[in-house]
Design brief:
Helix content is 85%, strand content 0%. By secondary structure, it is an all-alpha fold.
Length: 143
């Protein structure tokens, strides 16, 4: 093998490893941020002072705690989807199951547009699209 071919091959391997390391780093950050979010949601739902500070106008504390639980569950699904533990097909199965529950439909009705507005990339938009489709199907079924 010529030296130039060997160098090109080594460079290609190096670039592939850098890309792989960058992807792994992003996945780890997503999981780390999700862990922090989960702890924040737990505290917000269970610590009265935090719940009071974060509860929106006219939302009873019990209903707010349910919304926090729904948010926490959907954030977990979102993280699993982002890091590749759920495919679009398996996410749809999970979304269908959660949208069968009235609290998740109420959460999505109230906060779905906010989640769509804060979507940062196509993965977020795809996640929201799947959840919204299942929300609409469950709403039609419940009606």
């Amino acid at each position: 093998m010529k030296t130039s071919h060997a160098l090109v091959t080594l460079a290609g391997i190096g670039v592939a490893r850098l890309v792989q390391a960058e992807r792994q780093g992003r996945r780890e950050l997503v999981l780390w941020a999700t862990e922090i979010h989960q702890m924040f949601c737990k505290d917000t739902a269970t610590v009265p002072e935090l719940r009071e500070a974060w509860t929106g106008e006219g939302v009873p504390a019990g209903e707010y705690a349910q919304f926090v639980h729904a948010n926490r569950s959907l954030a977990f699904l979102s993280a699993k989807f982002r890091v590749g533990l759920l495919t679009p097909r398996t996410l749809r199965v999970q979304a269908r199951a959660v949208m069968e529950l009235p609290v998740f439909r109420a959460y999505w009705e109230r906060f779905g547009s906010f989640r769509e507005a804060e979507a940062g990339d196509r993965t977020d938009r795809r996640f929201n699209e799947i959840l919204d489709t299942e929300y609409r199907l469950a709403t039609d079924k419940a009606a």
